[in-house]
Amino acid sequence: MRPIGVHTSIKNSLINSINEAVELKCNTFQIFLHSPQVWQIPEFEQEIIDEFKSLRELHALNPLIVHASYLINLISSNPKTIASSRYLLKREVLMADLLGADYYVIHLKDNKDMDKNEIFAKTREGFSKIGKLEKCKILIENTAKSKITSKIPDLIETFNNINNENLGGICIDTCHLFAAGYDISSDDGISKFIEESNKYGFDLIKLIHLNDSKTSAGSEIDRHEHIGKGHIGIKGFENFLNIKELSNVPLILETPKKSLQDDLKNLSTVREILKKLES
Ligand SMILES: [Zn+2]
Ligand SMILES: [Zn+2]
User: Fold this and answer.
1) Residue 224 phi, psi dihedral angles, 5° rounding
2) Which of 25, 162, 183, 279 is the most buried (most CB within 10 A)?
3) Residue 257: strand, helix, or coil
């Protein structure tokens, strides 16, 4: 069965993220390792790590995805920020690897005062500090507005230029894709996405973040909405989930969440769409 899950919370304990995933009947899940808006990253005790790994195995939650924190900026014009970012990136990916994560997903920063080559060189340098990971692969996520990661050809060019041994592919977020100008609710928009992905390689897409969009196509603004309730709409998700080249790629929802009920609702909408497409 296709892996479907949500971003779950490690609030109070790492184990909570697994409990949430199990309660929601997910077979995959995504977590942050710490609050994504702060530089501090705690150490987990070995006992907790062991428990986390055995519970994950027991419930067959695959893949496990770790999402990078938002502060990491490998191309900042402030050398101190670069140093802290390299340190945090390394700490996070090593921790993800230690937890047995399959993927670590990161948004790369853009800088309007730098050309692509300078951005690539600085980003590559930041990645080169990581060292060889055991299992975890890093995925670069598409974003709503960026000269290096919002259009598919740019995203692939970035992937190729970073060229790091730990890099495993890309993650496509449907909300970001839509905001970047790929109107997947229309036939033209979905064809454009398929055509470009075909040209550069569908096989690079290892993960999908399935989110609807509060803003219109091409708005370049990243605001997630409940599945089917935003501008992408049910029709857009039917189009997107019907792409046969992506039919086995894991789906992670990052839709608005006040309680687990919200996740349940969104998951059931996605499952209904998939069921309809199968029949
Ligand atoms: Zn993301
Ligand atoms: Zn987003």
Assistant:
1) -75, 145
2) 162
3) coil
Q: Give the separation between CA 238 and CA 177, rounded to whole angstroms.
A: 15
Partners of residue 139 on adjacent β-strands: 105, 169
Domain count, the chain: 1
Q: Using the 8-state DSSP alphabet, how is residue 42 labeled?
A: P
**Cβ–Cβ < 8 Å for 73, 106:** no
Ligand 2 centroid–CA 47 distance in Å is 33
CA 223–ligand 2 middle distance (angstroms) = 6
With tokens 């990645």, the residue in question is: 127
| pTM recorded for the entire structure | 0.97
Distance 242 CA to ligand 2 centre (A): 22
CATH code for the domain in which residue 197 is found: 3.20.20.150
Ordered per-residue pLDDT tens for the chain, 279 residues: 899 999 999 998 999 999 999 999 999 999 999 999 999 998 999 999 999 999 999 999 999 999 999 999 999 999 999 999 999 999 999 999 999 999 999 999 999 999 999 999 999 999 999 999 999 999 999 999 999 999 999 999 999 999 999 999 999 999 999 999 999 999 999 999 999 999 998 999 999 999 999 999 999 999 999 999 999 999 999 999 999 999 999 999 999 999 999 999 999 999 999 999 998
For residue 203, the CA-to-ligand 2 centroid distance in Å is 22
Between the CA of 30 and the centroid of ligand 1 the distance, in Å, is 10
